[in-house]
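Exercise (ungraded).
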Amino acid sequence: MNKIATIAGLTWKAAFRYRLFWILCVLLAAAVAGLPLLLKDDGTAQGMVSILLTYTLSATATLLGFATLWLSCGTLARDVEECQVQMVAVKPIARWQIWLGKWLGLLSLNAALLALAGASIFIMLQWRASRLSPEQQKILREDIFVSRASAKEPMPNLGPYVDDIMKHEVKDPSAMDPGDLLEKRRQIVERLIAYKTVLPSGRARMWAIDLHNLKDRLRDKRLQLRIKFHTASNRGESEFPTYWKVGPTNSTRQAEMTESFPADSFQEFSLPNNLLDDQGRLWIEVGNPNSMDLTFPLEDGIELLYPESTFGINFIRGLAVIFCWLALLASIGLAAASFLSFPVAAFVSLAVLAIGLSSGTVATVVEQGTITGFDAAKSGYGHSVVDYVFVPFFRATLKILNLVQDFSPIDSLSSGRSITWGQLGLAVAQIIFLLSGFFCVMGIILFTRRELATAQGNN
Amino acid sequence: MSAVAESPSAQAVPKDGKTIVSVRGLTKIFKDFWGRPKAKAVDNVDFEVRQGEVFGLLGPNGSGKSTTVKMLLGLLYPTSGHIEVFGHSPRHVPSKAHIGYLPEESYLYRFLDSHETLDFFGNLFDLPPAKRKERNEQLLEMVGLSAVRTRVVGEFSKGMQRRIGLAQALINDPDLVILDEPTAGLDPIGCREVKDLILALARRGKTVILSSHLLADVEDVCDRVVIYYGGRIHAQGPLRELLAKPDSVRITMPAIGRENMQKVLDLIRHDVAADKVQIDNPTQNLESYFLEVVRKAKEAMSETSGATSGSRVAAYLRGDAEAAPAGDQLLKRLTVATAPKPAESAPIAAPEPKIDQTKLASLAKPVETPAPAATTAPAPAPADLSQANEKLSSLLGKPDGK
């Protein structure tokens, strides 16, 4: 362990001697302090927090992310190119210890910089909050400077329903082309989803959220609904009235509300206390008095937000998830530098990052089942031989990317959503142990097999 | 480092110890991106290095010396053949605790200062902090960098970088020291100090592998050598055996009168043809002369912004073999090593001109030039270094001037 710590310490020394640490501190300070000064909020508590957290945390993560990639490629590849690693490798230290020492050095450096940036953001947030009006400060304390977990109706298992409908509508499956069968099944799924998500004009629908495990904890606690719906209207910013009945059905405790919201954006509103029924369920009935249908998406159409922890703890957990991302970037950079020269390793690492950032495109390809795009002549999506290679590849890539992108600490923090210990544990398991672990093992194997004296020193 | 010259033959440790390095059929072929052979750097090389030996890898640039060294250290992998260092593969990590390595260039971290550099490498050997500190002090003193310990290595001159590189190679008191061109970039004083250090290590039973194309360095310190050319070994064996000319004899003595000299010559001519006899004044070599001049200059003044002349060999490196003060050591050697050694009396010179009678007359006169420096007295070999160089150069071909 002493040897690994010695190598890690070398990264720290290099960061200070080459003034990298201080330069990053200055850039982070500019991002944390300077950016919010340039960007004006709308004067509300929500606007201020949103701007501060979203921009500063995004800037911090981006800055540290690129610095980590660059440093991780440089610290190993340049050591090999300038032959310093020869001096280390002939000492009684295993190659894996050198590699791990470099990785841990980068991680500890990132941890320190992230902690500094996080502390600065937190202090800045408190300072800016103190300048808001008393009413806004109250909102801040109750709605935003909190850590709220969410609960929603469980995703329905559509499989059995789809099978039943298929049996009913397709009498002789062997008479149909396999491709058509798949399309038929897809249509039934879409129809069922529409049934579950669309609230037709002039109708009402009931949602039930099961909170029996939290029934006692949520007594007298402030609960909120977070909703989002889509409409076919193109009236821009206009709002749509909705009727809400929340609480035990046929009970005096049931609360009735009329709320108007714009479409296509998340909206939150508070509920009266103690609306759960005896079994710990929250019943929500929504009426649509509009002339057009409203669509509440399955995944985030209606969610219940409840207090889970303090903002400070949540903030630390959010930073920890960002740290997991940085650890992954460090392992990618070091793995590339284990067998490539510095410029090539940097290019490969940035390419991997670019693929990661273009997960939307990858998801679209997987969803459409083709990379050829929309064929206007056929009014559909074309298919080619290339798809047989790329679509499975993109599907696998998306699965890997989702291991990282399942977590959105910046969004959660800026909306006061809780990042639970469970989510943090999952992030550590998926991002650090699984993905970083994979890159670490690959990097160590490549570095151990590499001949270190083929490079000519250029210092 | 103590500037005391000593011939290799004076080393105390027997050279028939156990095998430290064993190389059998070693071949290294560098390949291009597509795996096609690009260059055969080492071609079927065999040799062994035994404990306590100063072993020289000699050859012109590009002959395969450094490649061999890097394979011994596990930095390059052989294409074929077998290497054992301390009975293990060169990649065996625990064995590396007994090895010190000085590469041909300074490959040190440029942002670390001298003290941090030694501390860093000491840490890799798991040396306890107290021992690390003690050795750091001694090594910095030894290589003459105590005064610049807080300057980063990147600011050092090439010679200073060699010195700190040498110090790091010795931080673990290694049993096997591998030195690749150790005197490259050093001034003559530094060169002498390095050679003295090598001899001091050998006296303690340490094994030294010296890779160099500087023939004088190799000749001064090595017991055995292998001579590389084009990746192959073209000659190997004890240096004395390689250089000796057993059919010639050289006698060195104080100048005598013309008549007595004539008598001696007559006696010799009785058995040897006149054109086979060569007579001249022995001269000290340039290194000895330079060291004497610098010694006198140091006595007169002493302030320099660079490395100072090194102090004595670090105490932990001297061990028992040099426990007594340097002066005592010198006296001991001067009094003990009086018996003439066959190798030292063997002439090495190649050209053998006819006797010049005029020169003979001048030689017979009493000598008025100042005597050579006392410290060089027991080392007759350097007088013929140039000739030895010529001989080896003709064998190796001309170095390309690296």
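Further reading is listed at the end of the chapter. For now, observe: The first strand of chain A starts at residue 146 and ends at 152. The two ends of chain A are 30 Å apart (CA to CA).
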